Amino acid sequence: MLSSPMLVSLTLFLSLPLVLFFSPQILTPTYFRFSSDAEDLTLFRRATAAPHTTTHLATATNPKPKIAFLFLTNSNLTFAPLWEKFFSSADSNHNLFNIYIHADPTAAVASPGGVFHRRCFIPSKKTHRASPTLIAAARRLLAYALIDDPLNQYFALVSQHCIPVSSLRFVYNYLFKNPLVSLASFAGSNYNYNLPSFIEILSDEPNLYERYSARGEKAMLPEVPFEAFRVGSQFFVLNRRHTEVVVRDRRLWKKFKLPCVTEEPCYPEEHYFPTLLSMEDSNGCTGFTLTRVNWTGCWDGHPHLYTPPEISPELIRRLRVSNSSYPYLFARKFSPDCLAPLMDIADDVIFRD
């Protein structure tokens, strides 16, 4: 007959498979800085298999290209009333845009109502600043917008702290009708994909190598050699072809989702998109973002936060101007209490072209 110690050991050994089987239900789940790719891969495969725009245009009545506005947020959309005015700032504009919102599911973000109706909210996952979760969230938004409407030709990523600094009519005409854009007629097979992407791509940042080696000195090799590494703004306006490149990518994503060993220079959301598109099609990108950010007096990686005393018609005019051929169409970062003074000048300044 087995002794008591041996019996206890045997019982524990035989019960181990049951413990492993039921542990996900009885143990507190381990939190990872970014979630499994399994669900996203299914979504991305659907997105890259989405109908071609030309097929849709050939059967549509008076088709027009659209802008997909992608809101990445971990709180309520404080500036929703201002965006509501933006989306209503041109007559018969409801066929010119779509809206998609990735809201952190742990933040209980409420639907703002109006044009931000509930169908705009996509299935989301928790996000963390300076982590691959922000890349994954942006890719998720891009994928849903690709699937949802073949007429989405530009994909503008903005945050809850972003505001428009021009009317929708101006933004739309600038993207699709300005002389810098070569766009053929939107009619059947004559559609031309030659739209530039507006994304900041920098190769001369002072701490470029520290950012590159944040995951380890050789962690990015061989897929991303240092000379190919780029940085840029987290927010961008991509054309459909480049959006498909981002959603289809697996090769660079497996590197940029690696955890950092040094946290301070690790901002993967500012590295992944400019590096990928620079490597894939640098000539198709302007290298310039359309979102104005003030880095004067920045701290802890945060840009200047505008407050109500700073809001004025002159500020809006300054925010539009750049030292490039391209004006700024959006701006950040604004404190929530800026909403009231911004609404006061919305009709007479912000949305008056």
UniProtKB/TrEMBL annotation:
GO terms for cellular component: membrane. One of its GO terms (molecular function) is glycosyltransferase activity. Keywords: Glycoprotein, Glycosyltransferase, Membrane, Signal, Transferase. It comes from the Eukaryota. Residues 1-21 form the signal peptide. It is found in: Membrane. It is a single-pass type II membrane protein. Pfam families: Branch (PF02485). This is Uncharacterized protein. It comes from Clitoria ternatea (Butterfly pea).
